């Protein structure tokens, strides 16, 4: 059985943090951190066993408007409340033989599931997705059944009644990170029809250029940060690049542009929930910098490892191997929080759910 501990329930949202990002050993912790800079509750769970030929590592947790859900072992999904109460909510038997990912709807009623099987021959990789009720297997709808590179698709959250699917490749690393995600698809939970495509590159490249498109940071309610670059084959042409805020309809807003070599002034950007600004690392100094459309960049003058936005004015950041901090972006003030192996954690999202 998992173990949990808790303190007083905080005012405001909490960051959902997953420890043991390298997935060494047998367990990991889910830690909820409040905007006041304290651990609200944490629980220890079993890591799923590595499956045959597995290279991709998918998210272990999901959040609704009031609960956090986490995978305990191969098949059991449990809930965790900010008050520290845990419960077994669903068992998915297929997780014993497949790589499992899931996302629970904001109202706790529905769950989107993907099951991926990797083969020694990548052309024989397979993946399928479905949605059904959390409480039972009723109202089951099959959403997709794919092979080869198209097998790598998994839910990362819900936007209203639609499911936000990450679309990736044969990769390693935490499944919500830009290193694993090539794009996001918004799909109907009723029939799997695609509603929108977010931060996806062209299916075929133009003859005169190479266009690269990739997500940055975590998806939030306002969308996701996206890098788009154009590298032209003509040596006399000017390369171009843009840091974009892309919403869940696919509409983009430019927050930064590249120089003539195609080099952007910022990287590792995280879009704020309201989509009006990003927290980025400045090239050169690596200082945490807030950028927004039509405004001068705000350099905070310090280096932090951004983990994600907790709300419109608070970031969870890494300081060193033993310390996290909650940073107030309007003042630059940071409240430190001691956490063992703080450099080996991922922020998976917020509770309430931010998509």
Automatic annotation (TrEMBL):
This is DUF4394 domain-containing protein. It comes from Candidatus Aeolococcus gillhamiae. The lineage of its organism: Bacteria, Bacillati, Candidatus Dormiibacterota, Candidatus Dormibacteria, Candidatus Aeolococcales.
